[in-house]
Amino acid sequence: MKIILAQPRSFCAGVVRAIDIVERALATRDAPVYVRHEIVHNRHVVDGLKAKGARFVDNLDDIPADAVAIFSAHGVSRAVEDEAATRNLDVIDATCPLVTKVHNQGQRYSSLGRTVILIGHAGHAEVEGTLGRITGPVHLVETRDDVLNLDIPDDTPVAYITQTTLSVDDTRQTIEAIKARFSDVIGPETRDICYATQNRQTAVRNLCTHVDVLLVVGSANSSNSNRLREIGEEYGIPSYLVADGRQVDPEWLAGKETIGITAGASAPDVLVDDVIAALAKLGPVEIKALQGVEERITFRLPPELLKAS
């Protein structure tokens, strides 16, 4: 069996930063340390941090007053920030800087008097946070049809922003629909969508030209991981999302000679290794990594943690 690995895959800089924030908080703050929502969308990562002492909660109400509270990489609304301040929580913000960039773009467009259109998935943590960062009118759309159904006059000055983990191609189509309907439109270029999302999608498209089946390592609630699986299906490749090696079904591999593996931006490489180990139990394997982008981007930690280190 031949295994080909996509490059890049697994953790992005925003995820690395978020995990580092929790680990440094555990090392420098008096226990316990609370994290609102999953720090990133990966159960393995969350369970590992739990084992080190982090406590994950769904709501700020679950955090005692004056305690340490970490906001996840997906970002939070202003209302959540205000509630944390009211309860005197010691907040450490792990929002990915690229998500913060979208927040700032949206508020800037709103301050110019434009109605903001957010392209994203309803209910996603990042989208909920972004919707709650913009003080003026903001509308969420997921598809081109949603754009057509917006209850906004066609001559309204609008601006669009995007969820960072979306498909570049799908986003481009929705942006085209916005530009086709409204006469006064501004917004960022599609290249402003998260670099890690674009790089992993480009890598998986390349991978799909070399393999018979695709395994995407990631959690079911990870938007970018699900999109990588969808890309494989669009290429006509049987594609499966697996959390780890235990979820690999040998029947998927029957008659297949070349297996492609990638991982979402919130999935650690140790889980890729676990999937490879599961495949190796089925027979001899040969492993090759495709050439691809070498990501060298890093994000600084919050100043309060740098001072404590």
Please, could you describe this protein's structure?
There is one protein chain. Helix 8 packs parallel to helix 9. This protein folds into three domains: 2-10 and 195-289, 4-hydroxy-3-methylbut-2-enyl diphosphate reductase, catalytic domain (Cobalt-precorrin-4 Transmethylase, domain 1, 3-Layer(aba) Sandwich), CATH 3.40.1010.20; 13-96 and 301-308, 3-Layer(aba) Sandwich (Rossmann fold); 98-192, Cobalt-precorrin-4 Transmethylase, domain 1 (3-Layer(aba) Sandwich), CATH 3.40.1010. The strands form three sheets. A five-stranded parallel beta sheet has the order 11-10-12-1-13, with helices on both faces. Strands 3-2-4-5 form a four-stranded parallel beta sheet. Strands 7-6-8-9 form a four-stranded parallel beta sheet, sandwiched between helices. The model has no long low-confidence stretch (mean pLDDT 94). It is of the alpha/beta class. It contains eleven helices and 13 strands. The protein is flat, with a radius of gyration of 21 Å. The chain has helices at 13-28, 43-51, 78-86, 97-111, 125-131, 144-148, 168-181, 195-208, 223-234, 269-280, 303-308, and strands at residues 2-5, 33-36, 54-57, 68-71, 90-93, 115-119, 138-141, 158-162, 185-186, 213-217, 239-242, 258-263, 286-289. The termini are far apart. Helices cover 39% and strands 18% of the residues.
